[in-house]
Amino acid sequence: MYDLFLGLTLFVMLFSGLFVFCSMRKHLLLTLLSLEFLVLVLYLLFFIFLCFYGLSYYFILVFLTFSVCEGVMGLSILVGLIRGHGSDSVNSLSILGW
């Protein structure tokens, strides 16, 4: 029963994060937050997988290192966009303006 609840919870978390990532194309900050949520769900999935099979946890450290680098790169793009265009709206990047 516990495994079914955990699997269903992770499934709902993963697809809600994907839905928010696909639907929030207006602001870069919301897109980055949904990406970080997806990274946390993947971290939880990797942790459960490694615990279930009794493998080494070094891969989790590598994954956390890359996810921190991804977050820092996203924040630097966000800061550059806000300084250059005045807002985090992705529509302001287009020449047409949509």
Structure description:
The chain is mostly helical and 98 residues long. Helices cover 78% and strands 0% of the residues. The chain has helices at 2-23, 28-53, 58-85. Helix 1 packs antiparallel against helix 2 and helix 2 runs antiparallel to helix 3. The longest helix is centred in the C-terminal third of the chain and has 28 residues, at 58-85. It is elongated. The mean pLDDT is 84.
Quick synopsis:
This protein is mostly helical and 98 residues long.
Which key terms come to mind for this protein?
98 residues, NAD, mainly alpha, NUOK/Mnh_C1-like, Helix Hairpins
Element-level helix/strand string: HHH
Q: What's the total helix number?
A: 3
Strand content: under 5%
CATH domain class name: Mainly Alpha
Shape: elongated
Catalogue the unreliable spans.
none
Radius of gyration: 17 Å
- Largest sheet composition: none
Give a count of the beta strands, DSSP E runs of length 2 or more.
0
Count of individual domains: 1
Mean of all residue-level pLDDT scores: 84
Class based on secondary structure composition and strand pairing: mainly alpha
Question: CATH architecture, please?
Answer: Orthogonal Bundle
Protein name: NADH-ubiquinone oxidoreductase chain 4L
Membrane topology: Multi-pass membrane protein
Catalytic activity: a ubiquinone + NADH + 5 H(+)(in) = a ubiquinol + NAD(+) + 4 H(+)(out)
Subcellular location: Membrane
SSE layout:
Elements: H1 2-23, H2 28-53, H3 58-85
